[in-house]
């Protein structure tokens, strides 16, 4: 399984657990529930799964510098 597929599965799991619409993490919305969900998925993707920042940014439709923020 590729890193991108693994992270997409993680995002799908995150949206189901938090009760968000499927695919909502890639939207440009800055609402608090979506920000928290992105941070959770990004943090787990980096620390637990060791997925590269550029892949996480690509799936979340954000630049990789935001992933540094999720890590800290």
How would you describe the overall organization of this protein?
The protein is mostly helical and 72 residues long. 65% of the residues lie in helices and 0% in strands. Helix 1 (3-18) packs across helix 2 (32-47). It starts with a helix and ends with a helix.
Name some characteristics of this structure.
4 helices; mainly alpha
> How is the biggest beta sheet arranged?
none
Oligomer: single chain
What distance separates the N and C termini? 27 Å
The parts where pLDDT drops under 50 for at least 5 residues are: none
Order of helices and strands: HHHH
> What is the typical, i.e. mean, pLDDT?
93
As a percent range, the share of helical residues equals: 55-70%
Instruction: Report the portion of residues in β strands.
Output: under 5%
The best one-word shape is globular
| SS content category | mainly alpha
Global Rg: 11 Å
The helix tally amounts to 4
Task: Write a brief caption for the model.
The protein has 72 residues and is mainly alpha-helical.
Helices, strands, pairings?
Elements: H1 3-18, H2 32-47, H3 53-60, H4 65-71
């Amino acid at each position: 399984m590729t890193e991108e597929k693994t992270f997409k599965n993680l995002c799908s799991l995150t949206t189901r657990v938090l009760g968000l619409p499927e695919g909502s993490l890639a939207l440009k919305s800055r609402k608090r529930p979506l920000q928290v969900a992105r941070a959770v998925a990004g943090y787990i993707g980096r620390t637990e799964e060791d997925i590269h920042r550029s892949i996480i940014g690509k799936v979340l439709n954000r630049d990789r510098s935001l992933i540094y923020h999720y890590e800290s």
